[in-house]
Structures are given as structure tokens and as C-alpha cells.
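User: Could you go from structure to sequence for me? I need the amino acid at each position, not a summary. C-alpha cells:
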């Protein structure tokens, strides 16, 4: 018996020894796997830069170039790309890609930045404030395209495993975006630039004063977009905006020059297939007022003239249009090194002009702001000083007192070039410039009976994969059709 006990004790000691040796080895192996040169914290600088680049690239994406640029009557694309210009509605795959690209690009990356800069291990309220500005711009474009969209649960599939996000109302999205911008402005006013992105800011090179102007100008854009949907919130937010610095000159413009690949995406649109030709609607407006931006926005044709194409032609009329020989997009907009814009000082001045009319009932002040907006737009495109002086002396550059809202609306439409998506949103909100109803037999009435489309549809994929949330949004918003207006489109 004693022998058996000794044997058992020996086995236990050996087993314990082996166990301790194993734990010791395991701990040692973990130490070996812990590479002292490995990155243990993700640097959000690269993610921030990528999110910003995606935001600017989005100004020439499918939704902007294939749809909004033609809906807003800036140009017409050839071949199969022309269908949206005919107000067609057979674009299910496009609608799906536009929604997915909106989230997989800027929003996805900036959501990661927001998470990293707000965690207890790596908090940075300055970077977080900058990220909120980019996030607002990303979400604003998605909601302006579709209406109700995922917002509180949007862009969080990877980090929070939300595969079927709920759809928030556009009203709630807009109200929250304004709050986010307001909070960011308050933080950045007194922030230490060293806490921002000293080597990773592709817009303002870490100039936080310019970031404040930028954020406040975006807030003004959102506030005026609410004018007909929530006048009280619009007016109170505008008052807030006017108490803080705004964009005033081209040096405040939010732009980026694409340096990778072939450069500016509008270059490939102009030189590739299918080609783009500028709209008669745009050319007529510029020519009728002797606007010096004509040579900026439009290239001369082979005969040295500016020749456009009418938007919405039927297939037969288009076949007789001499499309290939018409005017291309201007080189200033569509060269590899051309700037991409998300917000400009010119837009800001014209928003202020509209606000002066709408909320202050001050035509004289509105005229001063209106003229400033035109002048700054001309300077943005480096128009010759002599031409600027000449155009500013023309009747177009002064509010007539008769159709002031329309005058401001037309100049805003021009100043938004080449941010064509914002041009489409501007027309949807204000009704200016007036896009004619298509009643001619040479024009296609499409799926909207000749009325400019109001939104993009939720795709069949989204309806199938996230059905209950999408159906709930449709029940609030209205039929899933391209002529169903979004919440703020009340005019």
C-alpha cells in the first residue's frame, strides 16, 4: 500500500511539474509573440486622410456624374449613361451601388476614426471634432440622395456587428448633424493644433481657424436646406452661423487635388467613354448674360463655338443631335490636376444672401451679399480682373427687386459647379433655376411625367436584405419612386 501511495505522489509531483513547465513555456511563447516593434494602437491619421479623400472623390462618383449632373441640367452623357437624363427608372444596380459606396467609403473610415478618438485609451476631442465634420458631410449626401437612411446605426457593421441597421428619419438626421457641427465648432475654436492632424490634413494643412469656417459654412448650408421643412430651426441656426466665422474668400474653399491614377475623375469623364457634352441649358444661361465663366465651365467645339445639347432628348432626337461634335466640359474642371470641391466661399455668400431676403427682409443687404458671392466665384476660377469688373457692372450682378430669389438661385447653381450633386439638391429645394416640364414630343417624360427626379430609389437588394427597416422608411416617406420628395423638399 505504501508503495502504491508513493507511486501516486510521484505521478502528482511530475504532473504538477510538467504543468508549471507548460505554463512557463506558454508565458514565454506569448512574450515571443509580443513583437516589441509591432503597432499596438491603430493610428487614426491614415484613416482620417482616407475618409477625406473618399469624400472628395464622391463629388464625381456614380450618383453625381451619372445622375445628378444630368438631373440638374449641367451636361448630358452619351451611350447607355444617358438613361437618367431621360428620367428613366431602370437603375436598380446603380441605386444599390450608390448607397453602398456612400457607406463603404468616407462614412466607414470616419466612423472608425470617431471610435478611436473617443475611446478611453486614445481620447482626442480635437480629432474627434474634425471627424464629426467629415461624417456630417458623408451622411448629408446619403440622406439627400435617398431620404430616410441608416444614421444612428449607419456605417457600424464592422465595429458593432450591425448588419441590418434601422432607418432614421431625415428630419432627425438633419437635427443631429447640426448639433454635431455646433459641438465641433465650439471645440475647434480654442483647440491646440498639435492635437489635430499636423501631417495628415489634406484640406487645410491643420489650420483650425479654416476648419471652423468650413464647419460653420456647412452648418449654414444645412440650415438653409431646412428653410421650407422647419423654418424655425432654419432661422435660429442661421442666426448662430452668422455669429461665427464663415468662409469668405477662395483661400477658405474646401478642395482637394487628386494625385493618384489619372487624377481628377472628371478628366476621364471628358476624355473617356461614354463622353459628356455640356447642356444647352447651362450654355444659354452663361451666354445670355455674357458670363466670363462660360470659357471655364465649357470648352469650345471644333468650330470655336460653344454648342450644347438639350437635356432629355428621345432616342430619335438624340440620334440627330450631332452629339460627338458638341462642347466638352471645360478644361479648368476636367484636367487631371483640376480641383474637387465640397464647399466654397462663393456658396456661403449666396446662402447668406438668400437668408437676408428670407429672414431679415433686407433686400439691400441681400444685394451686397449676392454681389460678393458672384465676385468670389469669379475669383475662385481666376477670371481676369478686367472681366470681373465688367461682369459686376452688368444687370445680372445686381438684384432687380423683382425676381431676387430666382437670381440668387441661378447664381448658386452656377457657383456650385462642379459639385453637381449639390447643384441638384439646390434645385430640388429652391426650384431655381426652373427646370422646364418636358412636354415636347422630342423630349422624354420618363417615369416622372417630365418632372425632374426628386431622389434615388431604395434598391431591390436593400429591400430584400433589410426589408422591415426599409419598408418602415417607405411607409413614412412615401412610395419608393424617384418623384417622391425627401423630407426637406417642400418647395
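Assistant: Here is the amino acid at each position, in order:
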Amino acid at each position: 500500500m505504501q508503495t502504491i501511495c508513493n507511486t501516486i505522489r510521484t505521478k502528482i509531483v511530475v504532473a504538477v511539474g510538467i504543468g508549471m513547465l507548460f505554463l512557463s513555456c506558454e508565458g514565454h511563447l506569448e512574450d515571443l509573440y509580443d513583437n516589441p516593434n509591432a503597432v499596438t494602437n491603430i493610428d487614426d491619421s491614415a484613416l482620417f486622410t482616407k475618409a477625406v479623400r473618399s469624400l472628395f472623390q464622391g463629388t464625381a462618383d456614380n450618383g453625381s456624374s451619372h445622375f445628378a449632373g444630368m438631373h440638374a441640367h449641367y451636361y448630358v452623357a452619351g451611350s447607355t449613361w444617358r438613361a437618367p437624363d431621360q428620367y428613366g427608372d431602370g437603375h436598380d444596380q446603380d441605386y444599390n451601388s450608390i448607397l453602398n459606396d456612400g457607406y463603404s467609403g468616407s462614412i466607414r473610415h470616419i466612423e472608425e476614426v470617431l471610435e478611436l478618438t473617443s475611446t478611453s485609451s486614445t481620447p482626442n476631442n480635437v480629432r474627434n471634432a474634425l471627424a464629426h465634420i467629415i461624417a456630417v458631410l458623408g451622411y448629408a449626401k446619403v440622406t439627400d440622395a435617398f431620404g430616410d437612411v441608416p444614421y444612428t446605426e449607419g456605417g457600424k457593421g464592422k465595429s458593432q456587428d450591425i448588419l441590418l441597421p434601422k432607418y432614421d428619419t431625415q428630419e432627425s438626421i438633419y437635427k443631429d448633424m447640426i448639433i454635431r457641427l455646433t459641438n465641433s465648432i465650439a471645440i475647434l475654436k480654442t483647440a491646440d493644433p498639435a492635437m489635430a492632424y499636423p501631417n495628415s490634413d489634406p484640406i487645410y494643412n491643420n489650420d483650425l481657424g479654416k476648419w471652423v469656417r468650413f464647419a460653420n459654412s456647412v452648418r449654414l448650408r444645412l440650415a438653409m436646406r431646412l428653410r421650407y421643412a422647419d423654418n424655425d430651426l432654419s432661422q435660429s441656426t442661421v442666426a448662430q452661423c452668422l455669429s461665427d466665422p464663415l468662409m469668405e474668400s477662395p483661400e477658405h474653399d474646401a478642395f482637394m487635388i487628386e494625385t493618384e491614377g489619372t487624377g481628377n475623375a472628371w478628366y476621364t469623364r471628358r476624355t473617356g467613354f461614354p463622353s459628356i457634352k455640356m447642356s444647352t441649358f447651362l450654355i444659354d444661361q452663361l451666354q445670355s448674360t455674357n458670363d466670363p465663366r462660360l470659357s471655364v465651365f465649357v470648352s469650345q467645339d471644333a468650330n470655336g463655338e460653344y454648342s450644347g445639347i438639350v437635356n432629355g432628348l428621345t432616342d430619335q432626337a438624340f440620334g440627330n443631335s450631332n452629339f460627338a461634335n458638341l462642347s466638352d466640359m471645360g478644361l479648368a474642371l476636367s484636367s487631371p490636376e483640376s480641383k474637387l470641391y465640397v464647399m466654397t466661399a462663393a456658396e456661403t455668400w449666396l446662402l447668406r444672401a438668400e437668408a437676408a431676403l428670407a429672414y431679415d427682409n433686407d433686400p439691400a443687404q441681400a444685394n451686397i451679399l449676392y454681389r460678393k458671392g458672384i465676385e468670389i466665384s469669379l475669383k475662385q476660377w481666376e477670371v481676369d480682373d478686367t472681366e470681373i469688373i465688367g461682369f459686376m457692372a452688368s444687370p445680372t450682378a445686381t438684384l432687380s427687386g423683382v425676381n431676387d430669389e430666382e437670381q440668387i438661385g441661378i447664381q448658386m447653381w452656377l457657383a456650385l459647379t462642379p459639385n453637381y450633386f449639390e447643384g441638384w439638391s439646390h434645385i430640388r429645394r429652391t426650384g431655381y433655376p426652373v427646370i422646364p416640364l418636358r412636354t415636347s414630343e422630342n423630349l422624354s417624360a420618363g417615369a416622372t411625367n417630365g418632372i425632374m427626379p426628386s431622389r434615388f430609389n431604395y434598391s431591390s437588394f436593400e429591400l430584400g436584405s433589410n426589408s422591415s427597416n426599409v419598408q418602415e422608411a417607405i411607409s413614412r416617406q412615401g412610395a419608393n419612386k424617384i418623384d417622391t420628395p425627401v423630407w426637406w423638399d417642400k418647395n
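One structural detail worth keeping in mind: The chain has a mean pLDDT of 91.
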